[in-house]
Specification:
This protein is α/β, with parallel strands linked by helices and about 400 residues long. The protein contains twelve helices and twelve strands. InterPro entries: A1-4-GlycosylTfrase_dom, Glycosyltransf_32, GlycoTrfase_DXD_sugar-bd_CS, Nucleotide-diphossugar_trans.
């Protein structure tokens, strides 16, 4: 009688039989027979064992996939092309959370005004439309606490901007912004009430600190975006050999911006308009670049900074600012421009966009900030109706 012992070991069957150790022909066929039986038995055992292992691994992979997918979905709500899916939850985000998303477009309102003008609204809306994958942030000094006004605000333009998925409106808290920058010491010593140009000076300082800390693009609130800016580190030439600070962009912690903040404090003179703004940018650029006149529409580059041609943002220079509010026989196409600066400081709010006026500015509103323009028309119609009732 064939005596065979099958000893189970992890993952295998071990055959122990004396026939398998003798060399005669009779016993060899017995050994082969036993091995054949075992080979048919072992796969069934291993298959069941491996099947369970594979199933467990598949379950683990599925769980991991759903877990990771959930995290990625949450992240996607705060960035890129998924801004369109972000609901009311955006109003609970802090400035740091939004700024840390990177590549923000930053606007500042350093007056106490809470109702954005149509030009401010158009600037923010046009940026939100051109840069749909980037957060657009309007900091307002008039907001005195961390709670942003909701979409039901009595301020129409405020509600209009708040309803845009990638637009965020936050209080401008300068002491927080200036932390860990050379500007904090200056801010703690300066007396705003005694400053002649405090609204402009505080804006000049705030934009430097925000771009240095978080990176992105700063724009004045009278800049209408018409196409994306392809540069990451850039200054805008207002004219040959002279830089504006009305629009510029840099990655976070760029040395040039840090040097500008240090020079801001070292050469501070708040009585000279522009000394902390365009003149600061120009003198700092001259320390690292040999500035020359622009020829045609080419840009200049110095070290890792692009000095962009005046046509990029200032195709209509400041002495001719009134042309934005005139009717043109043939409107310019601005093919060489990324955005248009409407020179509101020169305007002093004397001229505004009037619905039906057919001015260049009105056409820009219609094209690049249509929601603001529609609101403008509705307000004009409401005012006309109110006036007509008063006359009656």
């Amino acid at each position: 009688m064939l005596q065979t012992v099958l000893v189970s070991s992890p993952g295998s069957w071990v055959l122990r039989h004396p026939a398998c150790h003798r060399g005669d022909r009779q016993t060899n066929w017995k050994c082969r027979f036993i091995r054949t039986i075992i080979r048919h038995r072992c796969p069934r055992h291993d298959t069941r064992h491996l099947g369970k292992t594979r199933m467990l691994r598949k379950i683990q992979l599925c769980l991991c996939f759903f877990f990771v997918s959930g995290i990625l979905y949450e992240i996607s709500l705060l960035s890129g092309c998924f801004f369109s899916y972000m609901p009311m939850s955006k109003h609970f985000l802090t400035p740091e959370q939004v700024l840390n998303l990177g590549k923000s477009i930053i606007f500042l309102e350093t007056t106490e005004r809470l109702e954005p003008s149509p030009l401010v609204s158009c600037s923010v809306e046009s940026a939100a439309r051109i840069y749909q994958d980037r957060p657009i942030i309007l900091f307002m000094k008039g907001l005195t606490n961390d709670t942003a006004m909701d979409m039901n605000s009595s301020y129409a333009a405020f509600s209009l901007l708040s309803s845009m998925k990638n637009v965020f409106i936050f209080p401008l808290q300068m002491e927080t912004i200036f932390q860990e920058t050379p500007l904090l010491q200056w801010y703690n010593q300066v007396i705003p009430e005694q400053e002649k140009n405090w609204v402009h000076v505080s804006s000049d300082a705030s934009r430097l600190a925000l771009i240095w800390k978080y990176g992105g693009i700063y724009m004045d609130t009278d800049v209408i975006s018409i196409r994306p800016i392809p540069e990451e580190s850039f200054l805008a030439a207002q004219k040959s050999r002279f830089s504006s600070n009305g629009i510029f962009g840099f990655p976070a912690h760029h040395k040039f911006i840090w040097d500008c903040m240090e020079n801001f404090v070292l050469k501070y003179n708040g009585n000279i308009w522009g000394n902390q703004g365009p003149f600061l940018m120009t003198r700092m650029l001259k320390t690292i670049c040999n500035l020359t006149d622009f020829k045609g529409t080419e840009d200049h580059r110095c070290q890792n900074i692009s000095f962009l041609n005046p046509q990029r943002f200032y195709p209509i220079p400041y002495p001719a600012w009134g042309r934005y509010y005139q009717v043109w026989n043939k409107s310019p196409n601005f093919n060489n421009s990324y955005a248009l600066h409407l020179w509101n400081f020169m305007n002093h709010n004397r001229k505004a966009v009037v619905a039906g006026s057919n001015t260049l500015a009105e056409k820009l509103y219609k094209t690049y900030c249509p929601t603001t323009y529609e609101d403008l028309i509705q307000n004009a119609e409401l005012n006309d109706f109110t006036l007509s009732e008063d006359v009656v």
